[in-house]
Each structure stands twice: as C-alpha cells, then as structure tokens.
C-alpha cells in the first residue's frame, strides 16, 4: 500500500506508469510529473477506470474514501463512471449551462441589434426546433448526433430553408457558449455541408403580359373590403415591399409633389440604420393613376393615421395575410403571385422596356453600401418619376386588353 512518503518520492519517467495502493486504487505518474488517482474496476464484464483527481490536491486518505464510495455504487449494480457523468450533468443543469439557458442569454444580447421581426424569427427557430430536443441538455455535452437529429426532422418535412437557418442559429448559440467558456466546440458547424444545398426561392411573380392583364382586371373587379381593394390596386403601381405598403401613414403622402416618402424605420435596413437619423427615406414618385387611388382612399381613412387600417382595430395596420388572401380569393394563389412578387414583375418588365438599371434599383429601394447609398437617395428622381408613370400606363394597357405595347408608348 502507498504512503505519503512513497507518493512524494515517485519520479516521472518517459511514459505513464502506475503504482498500486489497494482494491483497484492506484496512482498514475505522467512524464510531466503529474500524479493522478484512478480506480480500476470491472462492470458488466468490461474493464473500466474512474479518475478521482490529482495528488496532492486529493490526498491519499481522500482518494481511499472516494474509492470506497465508488465500490459501494458498484456493489449496488451501477457503474461508478456513469454515475459520475450523471452527477456532472445535474450540476451543470443546476448551474444554468443548458442549451436553452445559454440560448436565451444569447437572444437577450442580440435582440438589441435586431428588429422586432428578426428577433421573433430567431427565437421561434430555437423554441420550435431546438429546445424540445436539446434545450435541457448541458450545452457542453451536446454532440453532432443530437444536432443532426434536429436537422433530419426538419428536412423530412421538406423545410430545407428552415433547416439551414436553424443550423446557423444553433451555431451562433454554441459559439456564444465557447466565447464564455461554457462549451469547447460547435457541433452545428460540422454540419454546414451535411444539409442539401439550398437554392434561394424567389417570391412567386408574373412575367407573362397576358396573365398580368388578367390579374389587373381581377383586382379592379375585386368586391371585398374597399381598403383592401385600394391596397391591391396600388401594389403593382408602387411595388413597395408589403410591410412598407400596408403600414403606410398619410403623413408620408405629398399630393402636391406626387410622392410617397417611406421613413427609414420601415425600410429594409438593419436596426441601427433604421434608428440612425442620417439614414435617408425611400421616395416613391406617384403616377397619376396612383394619386387617383390615394385620393379616393383618403376620403375614407384620411382622418386617421394609417392609410390601410385593420378591420378589427383602426390603430393597427392591415394584416400581412390580407393581400395574399384577397389574391387567392380571386384565383391567384401564392404559387402564381405574392404581394412581394409585384416587385419582381416590375423589375423584369422595366429592364426589358429599356429603363435605366440604376433608376430601377433606386426605385426598388435596394440599399447601396457606403456614402453614395446614404446621401444620394434622391438620385435618378426625375428618371424614376418618368419610369413610374410609364409603368402605370403600361399596366393600364394590359388591363384594357393589350398584350405588348410599342416601346415608345411604354415609356410615354
């Protein structure tokens, strides 16, 4: 059996070597001089080793007491190593190192930089797809297999885009844990090439002039809510993003200047840019057809703040599902056209009609990087006004039965 003097006299060698105490307890001396207590035993017919700690931090007497406790566990028919892992897991859970706890900390940190909509999406990916499966597991214990299982389930439901986004969100949580020394690896990163390649799917839109004409006639014959009818008529004329359109406020409309000025807070910008007082608004020149629709709408909703108030609450904008539902009611489902698709329709046709690419991009409110993108928000405004009127005239022609208009007439 070992003694304190014998332990102190043990010298390192070229390789690890053990010195036995008794009943499976030994100390292993490593080449760097480290001395580690280990308990060797057999469980279910297999040799096992339980590490008890380093000498002299764990004394000879303490190592013997730990061996006896492990032997009691073994006599009860349980594996001391498995019990140690379970205890460690329970300790980590109690300390708040579960995936869910760490993920919520990450969300709280990042939400300050996100828009409300973006924060809701990120939280939803975790709550709906990650937390039910790995939320209660210690984040340091999660391996690639657990993450792959989550992604497999999503892919089987043919939600490939969601799978890619969930993987990236989980990866962010793991990297956050690594940065705070609560994990050592990112198992989601190892699966970056595991998922099938995802091809970005564009919003459904119409490029066939004949079909577009049919849609415009259906819109002008829409018999639903008047506010919804006005939104439907304006959507192809201004090709704003659906959120920019349905949340429009009357203060943004200048009937004399024939413009709709969308403030930065509603533009597709990151949160910092939305709140930056130097960020420019998006100016939409209004064709005479759009002005006529707005004047009619103003007679109904002009006394309020919102151009398109909701049916149940006039202080809230129209629901984001309203236009999709109206289009579907007219026989144009989301596989044919979506409100956002009017932008793609306009972009494709306007390029074919010969309008300047820069003017089209400005009118689509595609953000430019750098100083030019901040200060030149009124650039191409005369050309854009001509573009918008030419586009409105073209749509009128399609609605009245034309399929292709001469180039000069298109830009009239």
Question: What attributes does this structure have?
Answer:
412 residues; alpha+beta; Double Stranded RNA Binding Domain; DNA polymerase, domain 1; hpI Integrase, Chain A; three-stranded antiparallel beta sheet; disordered C terminus
Could you name the CATH topology of the largest domain?
Answer: hpI Integrase, Chain A
The amount of helix comes to 40-55%
> What is the CA-atom radius of gyration, in angstroms?
33 Å
Provide the CATH top-level class of the largest domain: Mainly Alpha
Strand content: 5-15%
Average pLDDT, to the nearest integer? 86
User: Which sequence of SSEs, written as H and E, runs from N to C?
Assistant: HEEEEHHHHHHHHHEEHEHHHHHHH
The quaternary state of the protein chains shown equals: single chain
How many helical stretches? 18
Number of strands: 7
Shape: elongated
CATH architecture of the largest domain: Orthogonal Bundle
Query: What structural class should be given to the helix and strand makeup?
Result: alpha+beta
